[in-house]
Design goal:
The chain is mainly α. 70% of the residues lie in helices and 0% in strands. It has helices at 29-39, 43-46, 48-56, 60-84, 90-98, 101-130, 139-156, 158-189, 214-218, 221-227, 233-236, 244-253, 255-273, 285-293, 296-330, 348-367, 372-403, 418-437, 443-465, 468-480.
Length: 481
């Protein structure tokens, strides 16, 4: 396996505040914690939940809870791998080590694709939110402005990125807690325009918890899983965290509380205050809930928060794509230009190319503004599921190697060992089948097939030009067992 080389021309010799990969360890504990929290709060909740509520009714709460349990299994598997070997290109590196160079190549490029299309989704959502205040501004104009501004933030330094993400996440966390408190006040004290109809019975009084049947509820899982994309971003920060052995386990172990409060808790309150039949696709359930309560200023504040959530996720996407392309370049699986760091120790070339491709989202907002969000969500979900599967399979292979005495044990073992990784893997396979069954989401499988052909061709070209690949494949078989 090829190691990442430090680019000494990109900012001097590696010092005490520089990782072995050449990155600046500029992300402190509070920033990593907030990045982890922010990764669990995004457009999938703030905007995608509207369409999911319309399909599943109150049972959507159970779907988010079920998916949250699986996500925790995935993150604990990732946590065990991260404490075994913390690296910035973690998912691709672990796939490369335990499954072979080809899987590292596919995982790295697929995770990069996931963030490119997720960036498109977030830009689309942000442009839609701008319509709340400025309906006369074309959707594509807002998307373009946001793209340029966030690109500038990512080029400066990882410290600036971390600080921006810290405050983005702080806004989201504060706002959701505030929404929950206000919603509970409506339910218990009965104030506001919604006070007469708000009641916990709204969770089951309108055709039951599964108003459209269990099948319809299960079909929302692919959209629900999109809401959890980015929780694994903590793994990408490993190479730039000041103290990964301390900050990463803490960030991962607080995930269940984040899911309970920000997903399950928020949706329970919202669906108690407003009947599920009043929600629809294309509208944030949070904004609609506060409009129903009759607090116009609060609706504007919530719209600002969901705009912040979209920009936060897009910002994280730019950060992640640059690091993943650099990892691929260090293993000769991408153009070597992507492996260079600028004087601020950021992979500027990789970020720049990714941002240019995110610009396709601007074009989609110009051509098909009403369908842009749905298209990119389905593609991003498929790419995210592949990444999570690779994490789980790598974890299973790692545990097998540890049990056989071929590798040292991690200081942060996952509960249940490989068993829970198998459970999560089966769950993700089921979600993939649901995507294939859904005619609206099926487009992502066509894109996946095209992407697979591109990767297969690219791998054949690489293999012919790099005789070390076959040797690395043989090394992998001996490690993974």
């Amino acid at each position: 396996m090829t190691s990442v080389q430090v680019d000494k021309n990109a900012g001097g010799e590696a010092g005490s505040n520089t990782s072995s990969e050449g990155y600046e360890r500029g992300l402190g504990s509070r920033q990593v914690q907030m990045i982890a929290i922010g990764g669990a709060i995004g457009v999938g909740l703030f905007m995608g939940a509207g369409a999911n509520i319309a399909k599943a009714g109150p049972s959507i709460i159970l779907m988010y809870a079920l998916a949250g349990v699986v996500i925790f299994f995935i993150m604990r598997a990732l946590g065990e791998l991260l404490l075994y070997r913390p690296v910035s290109g973690s998912f691709a590196e672990y796939a490369r080590e335990f499954l072979g160079p080809f899987f590292g190549f596919v995982t790295g490029w697929t995770y990069w694709l996931m963030w490119v299309v997720t960036g498109m989704a977030e830009l689309t959502a942000a442009a839609i939110y701008m319509h709340f205040w400025f309906p006369e501004i074309p959707q594509w104009v807002s998307a373009l402005v946001f793209l340029v501004v966030l690109f500038g933030v990512n080029l400066i330094s990882v410290k600036i990125f971390g600080e921006v993400e810290f405050w983005f996440s702080m806004i989201k966390v504060t706002a959701i807690i505030g929404m929950i408190v206000i919603g509970l006040g409506v339910l218990t004290l009965g104030f506001s325009d919604a006070g007469d109809t708000a009641a916990a019975s709204n969770l089951w009084a309108h055709d039951g918890i599964f108003p459209n049947g269990i099948g319809s509820s299960l079909m929302t899982l692919q959209g629900v899983m999109f809401a959890y994309l980015a929780v694994e971003l903590v793994g990408v920060t490993a190479g730039e965290s000041e103290n990964p052995e301390k900050t990463l386990p803490k960030a991962i172990n607080t995930l269940p509380w984040r899911i309970i409060i920000f997903y399950v808790g928020a949706l329970v309150v919202i669906l108690s205050v407003v009947k599920w039949t009043e929600f629809s696709a294309g509208q944030s359930p949070f904004v609609h809930a506060f409009e129903k309560i009759g607090i116009p200023l609060a609706a504007g504040i919530v719209n600002f928060v969901v705009l912040t959530a979209a920009l936060s996720s897009c910002n994280s996407g730019m950060y992640s794509t640059g690091r993943m392309l650099r990892d691929l370049a260090s293993n000769h699986e991408a153009p070597q230009a992507f492996g260079k760091l600028n004087r601020r120790r950021t992979p500027a070339v990789g970020i720049g190319v990714s941002v240019c491709l995110m610009g396709i989202g601007v074009v989609l907002n110009y051509v098909v503004p009403e369908k842009a969000f749905g298209y990119v969500v389905s593609v991003a979900t498929a790419a995210g599921i592949w990444t999570w599967m690779m994490i789980l399979i790598s974890h299973i292979r790692y545990r097998s190697a540890v049990d056989a005495g071929r590798l040292r044990a991690s200081s942060f073992p996952a509960p249940g060992g490989a068993l829970f990784s198998w459970v999560a893997l089966i769950f993700l396979a089921g979600v993939t089948c649901m995507i294939a069954y859904d005619k609206d989401a099926r487009v992502c499988l066509y894109v996946a097939a095209f992407w697979a052909v591109c990767l297969a061709v690219g791998w054949r070209v690489l293999k012919k030009g790099d005789p070390q690949i076959a040797e690395r494949e043989r090394e992998t078989s001996s490690i993974g067992g």
